Predict the structure.
Amino acid sequence: MSPVFHSAAAPGTVRLTVAQALVRYLSRQYIEQHGQEVPLFGGCFAIFGHGNVAGLGEALHAAGDDFPTYRAHNEQGMANAAIAYAKANNRRRIMACTSSIGPGATNMVTSAGLAHVNRLPVLFLPGDTFASRAPDPVLQQVEHFNDPGLSVNDCFRPVSRFFDRITRPEQLLTSLPQALATLLDPVDCGPATLCLPQDVQTLAFEWPEDFFTRRVHHIRRAPVAQEELVAALDTLRTAKRPLLIAGGGVHYSEACEALAAFAQQHGIPVVETQAGKGALPWDHARNMGAIGVTGAASANQLAREADVIMAIGSRLQDFTSGSRTLFEAAGQTLISLNVGRFDAVKHGARQLQCDALRGLEALTAGLGDWAAPDSWVQRQSGLKQEWEAVRESVMADQGLSLPTDAQVLGAVNRQATEDTTVVCAAGGLPGELHKLWAASVPGSYHVEYGFSCMGYELAGGMGVKMARPERDIVVVVGDGSYLMLNSELATSVMLGHKLTVVVLDNRGYGCINRLQHATGGAGFNNLLKDCRTVPEGAPKVDFAAHARALGCQAEQVTGIGELDAALERARTSSTTYVIALDTDPLPSTQEGGHWWEVAIPEVSEREAVRDAYQGYLSHKRQQAC
Ligand SMILES: Cc1ncc(C[n+]2csc(CCOP(=O)(O)OP(=O)(O)O)c2C)c(N)n1
Ligand SMILES: [Mg+2]
């Protein structure tokens, strides 16, 4: 549908408002994905208010199916869904998110942080106060006495990879392509924010028609620098005990198959970060499991023993490096194969700065038939078998009425097929998932553990389903995260994006309670029983009733046997199906894992804190600097 023009435009131009031009431009962007040209944008999530309803709202309506608009229930929720959509598309398809001014906009700032940390693309279009300032102060405007140009949207600056405020129509001509280039750049990738003052959205301008030419984008693959390749090959060839760390970049580069072939051909074990998990099937002979603080014993043991470690597409966050005490020991060489300079030079690594797929191709060509010594390959197999036995025992049903997280995941994992994608973000579950979940194929494991943002799970699950409608999405979520942000459950029902949700109700912030005890603290303000409440205690939340009220099908079950049966029912449901069960807040899998640096008070009245501080100091002494 074309908008109605109120006056003739000069030849070669088209007269549209800023908002109409923005939507038209976005709808003309395509991307080549697996040999097909598909729209770059899946559409726009929108919650309208003043600041976007009249300008951008009118333009989105006119675009219809050319640029679909989806209404959500919470701006943070919709932005989380948009981010999950991009992650599930390996950053090759994107969504826009528009909000009203003030609280609508600031609700998206947390999500911008999440996208920034995880290097995921999302286009934020927050409405902004009048550029003219004529009616100021407007509803929802925070006034700065000494800086009238500032609005709450400036909060997006530190959490955006690209930030601009469009105060004149023609600025769009230069800013929009820059925003898009950021979203599509493998290194710079992250949130792009274009603040749109409400009066500017509605201004007409004569846009060059060329601006709206259909464009097909490609993700650029950074080539390998010959000197860095030669150096990496020299190092790898001398290795007796090489190890590969697969990070999220392996997925985003779509290099999973190449990694599997590389590992197989050269006998090199692969360990996976949270973002990298699923790069190799869990039962692949060279997959040694999760590395780091939430790692498998097999993976962490190999990380200690390795002489050359090559991290591929990893930003080497503390959970991967064990707060820099797991590897980087004397005699260990770290190579970082990474598309970005910032990540490639971390922790004294030798950089191999290029696209993961290109890098692996070049390395395998250079290594020829070189392979790690047989003794190292044998060592891998033994450790893998030992960890497999641990995994099976901790995930087995013990018939408890208050099962552990690991036992719940056991039930969910046993029913998972190759078409299942598990989604999670915060609480105790990500650690258990990382250690224990058997990920079958790339894309079957979606855990946001860069920001580990409570409230990502349900909205994120919906975003994954929008990106990959053919997959069965299972969201596992704690009571705390569920209560923090659940409104997109209603959106999932409304849009027909079916999720299976398992709510593990341990009546509190179980993982933080455990962390509190591990740091010498007393149980305080985490489990509901340890909080200030009315004399009769905190209410028992009826999660199933709550989910039903939002339009889902739902049931409460007790124990793993009932969970198994409920999961079967969930599978055949056509709408979002929520299963709630009570779990034990105290246990978590003790096997595997590694130290994580959490600062302990240097002085305290509590003996437990003083003891914890001594333990802390001894770990600090092992830390690389
Ligand atoms: C938005 C946000 N606020 C606070 C935290 C800190 N935090 C991490 S896990 C957690 C508790 C999560 O509780 P729940 O979802 O019930 O999971 P459980 O720990 O019980 O497994 C908290 C408060 C966070 N990650 N995100
Ligand atoms: Mg909980």
Observations:
- The two ends are 60 Å apart (CA to CA).
